[in-house]
Specification:
It is a single chain. The chain is mainly alpha-helical. The protein is built from four helices and no strands. Helix 2 runs antiparallel to helix 3 (44-74). The chain is flat. The N and C termini lie far apart (79 Å). The model has no long low-confidence stretch (mean pLDDT 76).
């Protein structure tokens, strides 16, 4: 059984892209009509103004949604759509995996006898100065 390669056309068909943009435009136009009082008893000039503003809002929403979704689809690599991810996404590629087993094997960096929240030099909280001998600060 062979799987055919995933294409951008398979990710989202043009009809779906246009349908999503159209639904968003209808929603924006309806909200604009509601907020401008189109369905209330108003003078004819206010109803006409509400229709024009709603059409402009719907048209702008249609174009913005259509362009932004199309641009987001261009960013997707079709070959990586079905690939599984076995490592954390926010770590650099050369970093070791952050699995529970790997963290148990890591040596402790806290000094012996130090309180659990206190920072030590081995943790890199404050880098030592060249003239620092570890004594108390001088007054």
């Amino acid at each position: 059984m062979t799987d055919k390669p995933t294409t951008r056309k398979d990710l989202m068909k043009p009809v779906q892209l246009l349908g999503l943009a159209f639904v968003a435009a209808l929603f924006a136009g309806f909200v604009t009509l509601m907020s401008m009082g189109f369905f209330q008893t108003r003078p004819a000039d206010q109803i006409q103004r509400a229709l024009i503003v709603a059409l402009v809002a719907a048209g702008a929403t249609f174009i913005i949604v259509l362009v932004s979704v199309a641009l987001m689809l261009l960013a997707v690599d079709p070959s990586k759509v079905t690939a599984t991810v076995d490592r954390p996404l926010l770590l650099p590629k050369d970093a070791p995996d952050a699995t529970p087993a790997a963290s148990a094997e890591r040596p402790a960096t806290r000094a012996e006898g130090a309180a659990p929240g206190s920072a030590t030099r081995s943790e890199g909280a404050i880098p030592p100065r060249p003239d620092d001998d570890g004594a108390a600060p001088r007054a």
